[in-house]
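We examine the record.

___
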Amino acid sequence: MVKDRKLIIAGNWKMNKTVAEALDLVNGIKREVASVKEVDIVVAPPFTALESVSKALLNSNVRLGAQNMSENGPGAFTGEIAATMLKEFSVRYVILGHSERRQYQKESDELIAKKAAAAHASALKPIVCVGETLSEREGGITEKVIGTQVRGSLAGLTREQIEETIVAYEPVWAIGTGKTASSQQAQDVHAFIRKVLVEMFDDATARRVRIQYGGSVKPSNARELMGMPDVDGALVGGAALEARSFADIIRNSI
């Protein structure tokens, strides 16, 4: 399967894994995918494991991501993590605006846009998440919701910055539920997101942006999903918590 855009598959470990467990997992992933060159591979452990996982990833083909960061630089922001702190551990990517943070921490598109700008200011590549709920899909307003999120969450980025940004489409109704958008449903929304990017930037720029799918991605559905023309990778949750299943998703995507 050959695409102009290199596939990127990222594992979001969420609030899972002690440091010891994280090391076991990342070492297993390293062994499983050591020969893979066709895909950009990212793991995003919890903050507490970043230092240990970073050391374990030295000289490997797996890159380190973080699950969130502050829109602010260092200062009086108790409990927050600045981009400069992530850089200390050689973090390359940062997940922003995940639906769980939009829901539980009430993160807005405006806040996510500020975080994306702060990430770029520190040479981090943001993975910006968008997605509709089941009621929004059933109400026929998927494109309205996604369009608003994409325009709001990426507002203010330059063409150069958007090309170094990954957009992750994660239908909220498919996250952790075992339900997966069909490959065609995923393709339809990915194509719509690219159309919005054309309107925000231009056609050539939009064609260079990688758009991931997330939502109950498994080894069994990876090949069909990644085969869609506008699906450029996956943001994997539960299946990323076991080395073999995460590696199988990567292998089945090539």
